[in-house]
Amino acid sequence: MGFLWSCNSVKFVPEDKYLLQKNIIKHDAKDISNEQLKAFVRPKENKKIFKFWHFYLDLYNLSGRDANKGINKWFRRIGEAPVIYDEFLVKKSSEQLKLFLENKGYFSAVVTDTVIVNQKKRKVNVEYDIKSGKRSYIHHLGYKIFDNDIRKLVLADSVNSLLRGKKAFDIDLLNKERERITLLLNQKGYYGFSKDYIYYIADSIKGAYLIRDTLVIANVLKKLPDGRDTTENHYKYRIKDVYFFVDFNPQKALLEDTSYTAEFDTLFYKGYYFLYSKKMKFKPDVLINSTYIVPGELYDISEVKKTQTLITELKLFRYINIKFNELENATDESGNKLLKCYIQLTPSKPQSYALEIEGTNSSGNLGAAGNIKYQHRNLLKGAEIFNTRFRMSYQNQSSRGDKNNFNIIEIGFDAGITFPKFLVPFRIESFRRRYNPKSTVTAGVNYQQRPDYTRTIANSKLSYDWRSSQKVSHIFSILDFSLVWVPFISDDFWEYIKDTYMRYSYENHLILNTNYTLLYNGQVLGDQKNFWYLKSYFESSGNLLDGLVKLFTKGTPDDGYYSIMGIRYAQYIKTSFDIRYHHIANTNNSLAYRFFIGIGYPYGNLTVLPFEKMYFSGGANSLRAWPVRGLGPGTFRGDSLKYYNQTADMKLEWNAEYRFKMFWILEGALFVDMGNIWSIREESSPEGGLFKFNKFYKQIAVNLGTGLRFDFSYFIFRFDIGMKLVDPSMPLGSRWVLGTDPLTWNDFGFNFAIGYPF
């Protein structure tokens, strides 16, 4: 960084030119941001990171004068050439700024540009000083609509108008109102209606900064047989027939034109036509329940878009196209014109196989794994997706104290089938169209071998998921069953846990729970806008089993707990909230924040949370200066435990990360992580691990760090280095790591991972 900082920033600026160092905008328009105005300024200064460093220009300046040399080509490709001051573009920018302000209602705006030259450094700053003046407002909005039917629709919907009330004159807002009315009419049967039929007539009130605006909707222009022009009202359109081409081949259709459809067989079912070749590969109900387009209904563009989305999510077709043909000289009893709808579907291959060899990372610990996968996307001809996987992995982890590594071997098999509907004993066909529901049944078994214990987990689940809006989805697992069998525990590990709360977590147990997840994701792919992400989770376990067991069991067992076939079952509730906010400063810089809180409370038949349900901290997606399971609970310091295995009932964590693009596929990051875990029951808490309101904030661990990300488009490979800043396991007065003792390797964490941490 110091080497780049020392680069000559005007190295490649011609002698008679100046480097554009900065564009400065000063304005007094309260409702317009600097970012909006900067979009109209040309040229733009060289990109920065940290808001002050021309990093990409410095990379470019590392190249030599000979542009044909390989290293020079590379530096110039990954860097950014100096932006040269251009007087002509500055004047054009002033004109564009004035035009933009006029479009926003500032008709008397004055834009002045000033060039501040540093002759010695050969750099200039360009300052745009904007005096916006008073803004004009829409005083009255009138309508001039020639078609009576359209007039009724528009006026009845005027309560939703974007121009209601006292609105500033804004060309963008006027255009949005055109688009809103166009969508409204497209939803009410007006197929082919476009916003080109809508325009405005504006009349200003002199001296008052007020405008009388009239919204005009023109009729359709039509030529008479004698060549004269006339107009007629817009027609509504009704869907006459809907055809599903379930074996559509776009190339053949283009080559053979109308003769292509002759080779298809036709099935008429529940009011829809199905054209297929040889035999139907899908149950007709699957497609009918995935379409909003209904024969006999008026054309509605929103229903068309929702149909496209719903069929796409079946994952059965690689090509989906919906088109309409107007029937000439045909109308219904009300005079509406008629349309034929053609839903053209090209199936994808239903079966796929995959053999994967991969590098793995589990919170900073590296290993290798292999997967054999099989998928069938139409198992029962109802768009059911069947998945099965066999997995083997080998992972190397470091132990505490002596830093000797140990190995983890994992073997697992799982299978599941997803149905594009709810598996319920009653019919709810309309629910499919509205919420895109899915039911998933899964089962699997997993074997894990560690030096301190060996365990086998068998599980099965029935879950439902649906989407209530574009950004909100729900997952409800009505039955989630796990059986945990621990056949081996090492003597050292058992000696450590046998007289502690941890022993119950490493005994055989079973879990039958119900859980619910609510997801909100405000991110829009390809849209460089700030967004929120929220994941809330609630889980309850053991109550159903407890009720059934007690119903058929008299008295309390001698050992104080109930069991099923000799295996103890767990009772607990657990909830968590994961909140994230991403601030996109520009295409090269962003900030990401994350707050997580999770609490689990055991009760009844098992006084501690099962170990697989406990919270832990540390690792590549948590506090990155600590190893996974190497922090907490509270001030607890588990030096007597050879392997990192620190878990608890509660977790609190906050992370912030500044991300910036560097060059090529490389991105940089600076981050801070804060948090810890705690126990919430005194009888099951290690020393210093109990959560207390008057002490927990003194037990927050803090680390700083930096990292690199390699963006390979399909995945991101990440390397982070975290340094401990506050270590709550140290005695009071010694928790600040910097300045207390010399830094050691134990104060740093090195993490390799796939994807962003949050």
Give structural notes:
The protein has 5 domains: 2-131, membrane protein fhac (Ubiquitin-like (UB roll), Roll), CATH 3.10.20; 137-232, Ubiquitin-like (UB roll); 237-347, membrane protein fhac (Ubiquitin-like (UB roll), Roll), CATH 3.10.20; 363-434, no CATH class; 435-754, membrane protein fhac: a member of the omp85/tpsb transporter family (Porin). The strands form 5 sheets. It has an 18-stranded mixed β-sheet that branches. Strand 2 and strand 3 form a beta hairpin. The protein has 758 residues and is α+β, with helices and mostly antiparallel strands. It starts with a helix and ends with a strand. It is built from 13 helices and 32 strands.
Concise overview:
The protein is an alpha+beta fold.
Distinct helical segment count:
13
Determine the mean pLDDT.
89
Q: Structural class, from helix and strand content?
A: alpha+beta
* Large-scale geometry: globular
Q: Which class of the largest domain in CATH terms?
A: Mainly Beta
Beta-strand content estimate = 35-45%
Sequence stretches where pLDDT stays below 50 over 5 or more residues: none
- What is the count of structural domains? 5
Distance between the termini: 27 Å
Q: What is the correct CATH architecture of the largest domain?
A: Beta Barrel
CATH topology annotation of the largest domain: Porin
Number of strands: 32
